[in-house]
Structure formats: C-alpha cells, structure tokens
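Task 17 of the worksheet. Students: predict the tertiary structure of the chain below and write it out as structure tokens. Keep your answer in the requested format; marks are given for formatting as well as content.
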Amino acid sequence: MNKKSNRLPFVYKLILGMLVFIVAFFIAMVFGAADTTVKDVWMALTSHVKTDTVVMLRELRLPREVAAIMVGAGLAVSGAIMQGITRNPLADPGLLGLTAGANAALAFILALMPSANYFTIMVACFVGAAIGTVMVFGIGAMKRGGFSPFRIVLAGAAISAFLEAVAKGIGLYFKISKDISMWTAGGLMGTTWGQLQVITPFIIIGVLVALLLSRQLTILSLNQDLAVGLGQKTTQVKAILFVVIIMLAGASVALVGNIAFFGLMIPHIVRAFVGTDYRLILPMSAILGSAFMLVADTVGRTINAPYETPIAAVVAIMGLPFFLFIVKKGGQAYS
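Model answer:
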C-alpha cells in the first residue's frame, strides 16, 4: 500500500485530506440531537440571520466543532512528535503519562482554587503534563539499555494509573468527584467561544513550531548520531519539541479531558500514505486528526441521542484494537 500511495504527489494527498476534513466538518455541523440542514449550517457560517436554529448552530455546535478541530490537530501532532523523538512506535500522550498528569493537576486546581479562570486551569494542565512526562521518562531511564518502546509504555501505564488514582482521591476527599468527572470524561459538550479564545492560540503556536522543526524531527527520528553529525543541536531541538508536546497535550486536556490512543493512531495511519518524512507527516496528521475528532464527536452525539456518549469512549473503542495490532506487528505496521 505504501508504494502505490507514495506515487501520488503530496499536494494531491493534501487536497484529498482537506476534502475529507471539510466533509467531516459539515457532517458534524448538520447531524445532532437537533434537526438541522446544510442550508441552516451555511446560513450560520455566512449570514447574520438569527433564527433559533442558526443561533443554536453558532453558539453551541460551531464552538464545539472548532474545539474538536483544535484538539484533534493537537493530539495527532503531539503523538507524531513523540513517536519521532523517542523512535517509539507506541508513543502517545494518553499512554505516556501526559494526559494523566494534566488530569491530576486539573483536580488539584478544582479542589484548591474552585474559582480559577480557564487560563489558570490550562497552565495547571501544562505543569501536570510536564510532571507526568518527567516521571515516565525518569522511570524509563532508570534501567540500563535506554528507552525501549515497551519499557516506556509500561512506565507510562504505571504512572498514568498512579496519577489517575491521585485525581480520584482528590475528588473523593474534597467531594468534587462530579466536577472532575465532567472534565475528564473526554467530551466537548459546553465548549464556549471564551474557552476557545484561551486554548486556540496555544495549539496553533504549538503546531506551527512543530512544522518549523519538522526537518530536524525527521533526522532525529532516523538516527541521533546522524543528527549530531549533520550539526543539529539535538538537545535544544528535543527540548523545544517536548515543550510543544506539553503545550498541545495540556491544552487538549484542559478542553476535553483524557483521550488515549488518538495520538497513537493518526500518525501511523498518515505514514501509510505519506511515508516517514515529518515535513509531510505533521501537516497531514493535523488535518486528518481534526477530521477524525469531528467524526468521533459526531458519533458520540448521535449514537444515543439525545444523550451524550463520551468522546473518549468512542476513540478508545477504535484505538485499543489498533494499539494491540501495532504491538503484534512490533510497531512496524504503518512505518
């Protein structure tokens, strides 16, 4: 499949990815508990009409889908970066402690500063994601032999379980379990334009910085010695990219909670079509990640309407079999 797909110029693949994204966006805007049409969606996006349906689309469904776009791009790009830096095909923000660390920090903030604004919550998620990452890679580095993929995944599973237990313990002790669950269930319900104004700049900046460093990431993903031999400042590049990962994962958790497997799946699927060059992987991951999150949110809203199915559950149903498939193939299924 790789050989056939790689004959097609990247610009055509990019156009195809954009078409998939646009279709997914319109499907997400049209389908839901409330009956709407393509015409209603078009009027909500292009006119100043203020019918009940149009207002609902603008104030409820549109910010929700913009959030899905941002989170999908953020998690997909952060997963691709993690896989490139660590050369670990099983790397994913949800599996390696980032999102669990952000969740634990969010629980602390909700308990100690219940009136904290959204920016404070997001900064706390950044700090928590950083702590989770340091703990996982610290444990992974304790044993001789470096960061083997499976050792890192085991460390990530242990730290994630510990941090999730911390978050639940805080919820029980401070009697805020319901509030924490609302954040960590993994959903976009109730997303506001105010939240998006805080979160969107961080995700956009993170993705742009990743794109600027995509060439360096490609070299790092191949061989560290090669990167040093080519004069690359590997320590600085890795440090910047880890900051980008923390920004993207922390911002995503602050918006939708803990979503595992997403950052694992999308980069692997993208590699099947564009190869191993991160100058191509990162932009395509952002586009397809956004499209996939839009589809997952649509499924979560419609599968049991008018009730919501957590988007984290929808992603996990698809992500767990994919994870097991990658493990069975030794991580090389789509490399």
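Marker's comment: Residues 22 and 140 are 41 Å apart (CA to CA). The two ends are 11 Å apart (CA to CA).
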